[in-house]
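User: Can you help me understand a structure? I only have the sequence.
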Amino acid sequence: MYTNGRHKCTEKYGTGLALKTVQGIKIALQCCLQKAVDEGLLERNPVAKVKLPREPKKEMQTMKANELKAFLDETKRSGCYEFFYLELLTGMRIGEILALTWDDLDTENNSIRVNKQVQRIDGELVINTPKTEASIRTITICDDCVNELLKMRARQRFVTDLMFPSPVTMGYRDAKAVTRLLHRIQKRAGIPEIRFHDLRHSFATLSLEAGVDVKTVSHMLGHTDAGFTMNTYMHVTDKMQQQVADTMGNLIARKQEEEPTTKRITFPA
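Assistant: Let's start by predicting it. Here is the structure, written out as tokens:
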């Protein structure tokens, strides 16, 4: 199934089914056959020891600092600046930002409360609680972002509790439609195409490179612990550690130059 299980849309998606689809099929078969084992119809569950291939790790892509201006300029021309500006400032998951309501915005404390997410289940967009306890969080935003959101609210021509409603249905936006919009903006801006989730990676990478500590970034992303964040963005934290090492080396070198020269004694190896 993983290599040759697809019979429709093979030109677009290839001949194999997605690994998550195959995993779901395996779970269903395993449960059915385990019931047969429990009732004495089978001696053993033939699916129990089937091992699926590992899902290939997707290469992380991020928006570079020099691409930000072109991207945000295009979002202004496309009428969706506030949405993508907030995403790049907070790194929220797409379901989280689409579920935001105006009472989630705290203008006194310059913060956004994240406590729900939009998901498509059985073809319908529904509201659920975030995936983990750590995902329920409060994120601080800057004055400029608060002002932009308030100006956007004043321009809205219809009454809604949603911060970013669908312009067609006035209800929740569909994540796939947002992704298509993102790709059109990237194309018009002349920058490489990345997934919406990569905007989240962009937030984390740019924050860490700017010197924000890992624990703070982990909280804003809604990760369970900072260790997961550090492992995910090891390429950035390695660079930060090198910067610390270079800074400390330069500091010690300057201090030694300031102090009177001390005779160094060398012991034989």
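Now, to help you interpret it: The two ends are 63 Å apart (CA to CA). The chain has a mean pLDDT of 87. Let me know which part you'd like to focus on.
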